[in-house]
Amino acid sequence: MIIFPAIDLRGGKCVRLIQGDFDKETVYSDDPQATALKWQAQGAKFLHVVDLDGAKAGSLQNLSAIKNILSAIKIPIEVGGGIRTLDDMEKILSLGVRRVILGSVAVENISLVIDAVKKFGDKIVVGIDARNGFVAVHGWEKSSAVKADELAKKIVAAGVKTIIYTDISKDGMLSGVNAEIFAELARSSGAQIVASGGVKSLEDIRALKAREAEGVVGVIVGKAIYAGALDLKTAIEIAED
To answer: pLDDT value at position 72?
Structure first.
């Protein structure tokens, strides 16, 4: 199982939000490049980078910060937030980004997801962000009538192999994960699931690791490592055991 340290970008800074609320922001660093180097030094094999401004605006907003991260580290990164067209995907991948995360566009335009997979293959992953089982879009500001499990099945049918599933109710809350919902989505959809939302302790990492055989292949860690509640190096050792 892969541990993905999260770098959420807003105004060129590393921030964390509570349940996706832009009014509940904590700035942890004004140097995303240094933060990326820190997580790499602690053993991270892959970074999860989100352009929060981009998710809200519908177009990439923190490109310079992403470029700075890429120039500093040797490990791969995945990037999401405001990537809505094939040209956007081409642009971000050409910088050296390993994977592109599609979010709102997967709800609104599944044909684009199909085209993206045809063109870029497994460099395309989809993020499903859900509140009470229903998908939220546009930086989590709007809830849709689409159920997460139904969308996951459509995404897999479109050719996507990996889904990042965020439990919004737990995101940024340090409340612990519900490992079962991630395993359940993996079983029902056939996708490989990267879990996101609520990680607070090594017990959460162990709980998700126990679901690896069911299709939970990774976990995104954010606030817990920024706040010092979770030791990244130890978490990685457990995940890779």
So the answer is: 96
Say yes or no to pLDDT of 19 above 80: no
Q: What is the mean pLDDT of residues 33-60?
A: 94
Rounded-to-integer distance, Cα 17 and Cα 37, Å: 22
Q: Tell me the C-alpha distance between 61 and 72, whole Å.
A: 20
CB-CB contact of 212 with 194 (8 Å): no
The amino acid at residue 79 is V
For residue 228, give its domain range: 2-240
Q: Judge whether 88 counts as a catalytic residue.
A: no
Express as a percent the part of the chain with pLDDT over 70.
92
CA pseudo-torsion sign 95, 99, 100, 101: negative
pLDDT of residue 60: 87
Burial string for 94-105 (b: 16+ CB within 10 Å, else e) reads eeebbbbbbbbb
Would you state the pLDDT for residue 168?
A: 80
Catalytic residue, chosen from 8, 51, 88, 204, is 8
Predicted TM-score of the model (pTM): 0.92
Q: How many domains does the chain have?
A: 1
Tell me which residue has tokens 């010092």.
228
Q: For residues 9 and 31, what is the distance between their CA atoms, to the nearest angstrom?
A: 10
What does the alpha-carbon distance between residue 199 and residue 38 come to, in Å, rounded to a whole number? 19
CATH number for the domain harbouring residue 233: 3.20.20.70
Q: Clarify whether 129 is annotated catalytic.
A: yes
| Catalytic position from the list 51, 88, 129, 171 | 129
At residue 162's C-alpha, the angle toward residues 156 and 165, to 5°, is: 95
Q: CA separation (Å) from 226 to 95, 146, 216? A: 27, 32, 23
